[in-house]
Amino acid sequence: MVSATNVLIALLPLLTIAYLMVGRYWPATRAMPVAWGVAIVAGFFGWGMTPTWIAAATINGFITASNILYIVFGAILLLYTLKQTGAFDSINDGFASISEDRRVQVVLLVFLMGSFIEAAAGFGTPAAIVGPLLVGLGFPPLAAVVVALTGNLMAITFGAVGTPLIIGMIDIFDDVPVITTALDAQGMGVEQWVSEIAVFAAMNHVAVGILLPFIGVAMMTRFFGEEKSIKPALEVLPLTLFAWASFSVPYFLTAYFLGPVFPGLVGAMVGLLLTVSALKAGFFHPDEEWDFAPQSSWPDHWVGDIQPGETSDRDGAVAADGGVVQQMPLWKAWTPYVLVAGLLVLTRVFTPLTGFLKSNLVIQSGDLLGTGLSGSFALLYLPGAVFLVVHAITIGLHSMDGKQVKATWAETIEKVTPAVVALLFAVATVQIMLQSGAATGSDSMLIVLSEGMAGIAGGIYPFFAAFVGAFGAFLAGSNTVSDILFGTFQYGVADQIGTSKTVMLGAQAVGGAIGNLIAVHNVVAALAVVGLVGEEGRVIRLELIPLLYYGTATGILTLLFSYVLFPGVF
């Protein structure tokens, strides 16, 4: 039986993160380096790791984090490219022209468009983009933030083109001998297994997410409507169910047949196409349009520095010939993301091209300090390369000048820089905890934690698996980092209590999405872009409503999957 002392030592890095970020409100850029230091102390004194192993694990963590940052940088660069050229203004106005009913706009912009942005860019960008779009349409800024954070949960699990599962699970599990050995016995590789995890995660989301678009609308009408009731939301229930189905069917089928890269992207694109087409054909429009009460009646804390309905910086801009800049056609505004989707499919499905990209311009670390650990950085194959290529194409397609390109890069660097330190040290912390076993020939810190948790919760632990994943995302503000932090831990618990590891990791992947609802830096960023400061507590309290629904429903499903429906799955 695992000792309480070892469990406590293994917990120290995670408790440090929780105390500094939740108790002291430290940003991740400060908390993660401290947690890394605590992990070093725990590894050296508690586990007997040598300085060489600690250094190798840290370097390996930095390499893994660099893979994430490359994707993040490319995704956000393209996002800001479209903002700079006015493409997002066109996309926004295209949605507004379909319906002026706020409930319909929430379904289109928050659930579907937000899911598309999450699938294309990830890392907290949907709320930061959709929030200002809603404010531009006339939403109270506080309402815009609350609903924007709620709507894209189903896409978060797969993040930016599968990053949470590819980086957060595949790259991590490849370095865990306990997992690779067990998979070898099953005749599976890590990549194949994580594709199965993706299916179970998608299955959870499809079942629980049936109410997700409705919840976003209901929170708006209940907390920000003049009636303070969910009754107006019930009037658009058919629309929310149609949008859910239009998204969920291609989402699940893509996860089943193609793995973790494309579910959110395909689901959102098909969902948008079908839902917009249905609305344009006259279906699902409520009998009467719903709007907020006059702004004069709004509480002061609903509005900050940016007034609802304010136009973007490009509106009314003067062209070089003295005329007014014309709005970009919708086809042109959407083309970059269509190119992203097409190139990602091509580079993942066309085997000769995939092989070329995986074998050229790959930076290999080799054996790190004689430990057997190694890392790599595939410059051409990682999705970051696709985003950079499409950014270059968009410069010409959208006729950007040098000033715009410079501004785009400056905004991107400003956005990504805070994530660099946080991600480097978060992943390094986890690598030390992961490699503490291989370094000493004993169980790693995460395995010890798993054994301790299994002993406490026993057979009902699957109910809590999603909440553990949510806790990780709450701490780190990232589904990817949550999977890195707790993926091996969840595997260990499933192994200890004798339930399906695949089902348990599926719940972890869903939980990592749920935690983004209340991740402090996501909330702060979403409030900042709509001009509100100091309302974090109010937003987090409201977001606990969808969090508790989603976590509880996922927990019940995980118990059902583990013991009734899929008890024989690895």
Can you lay out the helices and strands and say which pair or pack?
Blueprint: H1 4-23, H2 28-46, H3 51-85, H4 87-96, H5 102-120, H6 125-137, H7 141-150, H8 153-156, H9 163-173, H10 177-186, H11 190-208, H12 212-224, H13 231-234, H14 237-258, H15 263-280, H16 330-349, H17 351-359, E1 362-364, E2 376-378, H18 383-397, H19 402-440, H20 445-457, H21 461-476, H22 479-497, H23 501-514, H24 520-528, H25 536-565
Antiparallel strand pairs: 1-2
Helix pairs in contact: 1-2, 1-20, 2-19, 3-9, 3-18, 3-19, 4-16, 5-6, 5-7, 5-12, 5-14, 5-15, 6-7, 6-24, 7-12, 7-24, 7-25, 9-11, 9-22, 11-14, 11-23, 14-15, 16-17, 16-18, 19-22, 20-22, 21-22, 21-23, 21-25, 22-23, 23-25
| Mean pLDDT across residues | 89
Q: Tally the helices.
A: 25
Number of strands: 2
Residue stretches low in confidence (pLDDT < 50, at least 5 long) are 315-324
Give the biggest sheet: 2 strands, antiparallel
Structural class: mainly alpha
Keywords: Cell membrane, Membrane, Transmembrane, Transmembrane helix, Transport
Subcellular location: Cell membrane
Protein name: Lactate permease
GO molecular function: lactate transmembrane transporter activity; solute:proton symporter activity
Descriptive account of the structure:
With 570 residues, the chain is mainly α. The chain has one domain. The protein is built from 25 helices and 2 strands. Helix 19 runs parallel beside helix 22 and helix 21 packs antiparallel against helix 25. The protein starts with a helix and ends in a 5-residue tail after the last helix.
